């Protein structure tokens, strides 16, 4: 997606569909969202960037800058080590996704373990709705979960809450509600 810089990074991310597990953005220096990778050309930039919050990795063509960054405790790689950086991004993304998954290895999603689910989410092989523990509102048709727009999901949830409040015998503290309808 290309967008002129008229929005903050948070606004740009909010415009994306919710199921993008990893967003890489360029041109938002000093932003406090996510983890930043700074491309450093000289020692002056390294001194300046060391005080910025959210810097995750330093990348430079200069071996001495990489070594100085590492000496200060920063993660740093040579620009030529793009595969290593991609590997670090991948591991961090999987770890982040895994921290958001209930971690019960229930295998309801059909993928397998929660680690496998996190990897499948990252590679976009599946969507979050395929883990019933990740979604608050799910519609399943012929045993396949459907993607619900967040606005529709919220509307459906509020409709069900209103419906439940009108039925005698449903405790007001009910947290989960299941309806199955056969159209045969």
Features:
184 residues, alpha/beta, 2 domains, 3-stranded parallel β-sheet, two-stranded antiparallel ribbon, 6 helices, 10% strand, elongated
Model description:
The protein is α/β, with parallel strands linked by helices. It has 2 domains: 9-130, no CATH class; 135-184, no CATH class. It is built from 6 helices and 5 strands. The chain has helices at 9-14, 43-49, 63-71, 82-100, 114-122, 150-165; strands at residues 36-39, 55-60, 75-78, 140-141, 144-145. The strands form 2 sheets. The chain has a 3-stranded parallel beta sheet with strand order 1-2-3, with helices on both faces. Strand 2, helix 3 and strand 3 (75-78) form a beta-alpha-beta unit.
Topology diagram in text:
Blueprint: H1 9-14, E1 36-39, H2 43-49, E2 55-60, H3 63-71, E3 75-78, H4 82-100, H5 114-122, E4 140-141, E5 144-145, H6 150-165
Parallel strand pairs: 1-2, 2-3
Antiparallel strand pairs: 4-5
Task: Supply the number of helical segments.
Answer: 6
Average pLDDT value? Answer: 80
Strand order of the largest sheet: 1-2-3
Main sheet record: 3 strands, parallel
In short:
11% of the residues are buried.
């Amino acid at each position: 997606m290309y967008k002129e810089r008229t929005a903050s990074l948070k606004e740009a991310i909010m415009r994306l569909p919710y199921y993008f597990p990893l967003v890489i953005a360029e041109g938002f220096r000093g932003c406090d969202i996510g983890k930043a990778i700074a491309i450093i050309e000289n020692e002056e930039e390294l001194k300046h960037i060391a005080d910025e919050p959210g810097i995750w990795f330093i990348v430079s063509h200069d071996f001495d800058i990489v070594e100085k960054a590492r000496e200060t405790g920063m993660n740093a790689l040579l620009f030529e080590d793009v595969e290593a950086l991609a590997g670090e991004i991948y591991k961090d993304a999987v770890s982040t996704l895994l921290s958001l998954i209930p971690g019960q290895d229930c295998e309801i999603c059909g993928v397998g373990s929660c680690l496998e689910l996190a990897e499948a989410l990252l590679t976009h092989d599946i969507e979050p709705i395929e883990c019933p523990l990740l979604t608050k509102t799910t519609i399943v048709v012929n045993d396949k979960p459907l993607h619900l727009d967040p606005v529709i999901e919220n509307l459906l949830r509020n409709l069900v809450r209103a419906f439940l409040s009108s039925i005698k015998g449903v405790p007001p503290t009910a947290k989960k509600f299941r309806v199955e309808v056969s159209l045969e």
